Amino acid sequence: MSFITRGFGGRSRDRDERLPPGQTLVHDFPVLSAGPTPEVDTADWAFTIHTETGVDHRWTWDDLMALPIEDVSTDIHCVTHWSKLGTSWRGIALDTLFADVETGYDYTMAHSYGGYTTNVPLDDLLDGKAWVAFEFDGEPLPAEHGGPARLIVPHLYFWKSAKWVRGLDMIERDEPGFWEQNGYHLRGDPWKEERYW
């Protein structure tokens, strides 16, 4: 008896050029999480950027909804070898949130409700590269996909797009978050197959 696992079906001759090496196209939206799904009510949700000087920049849900909202169409790539192309999101650009933040640090640690963390260099969050997203495919983001809001950093593997995001701490050095402490790459560029280190 032989088994074929999705993601290990070999190379197709008509491989889509939008697929990074080692990725397989999916049409569903797989749900992968490191722990239980937290249920966070928007009335209790807040997002904070904590700087090295101790200053907190904080937004409630209502504060977030009052900021300029962007529609984002992008491909997403999971380290477990699946890619979903042309996904549609709505959210707030990290550029908007960082507009009044003064920091001399080049790295961040993202924190989520439920305790998850992931490190992301500041350069990977700014210049139109990342969002705090609250809608997917025209609907409020469901909890299993990180709702009410998640980080979207689509040019990196999807574990960097922290579900249930609640904030970013500015950090001096690039320190590993949850998956990075367990062997995942510190940066996670899918085009370089930076899966593990």
Automatic annotation (TrEMBL):
Domain of life, per lineage: Bacteria
Chain residue ranges for the region called Disordered: 1-20
Pfam families per UniProt: Oxidored_molyb (PF00174)
Protein name per its UniProtKB record: Sulfite oxidase-like oxidoreductase
Residues forming coiled coils: none
InterPro entries: OxRdtase_Mopterin-bd_dom, OxRdtase_Mopterin-bd_sf
Domain named Oxidoreductase molybdopterin-binding: residues: 35-179
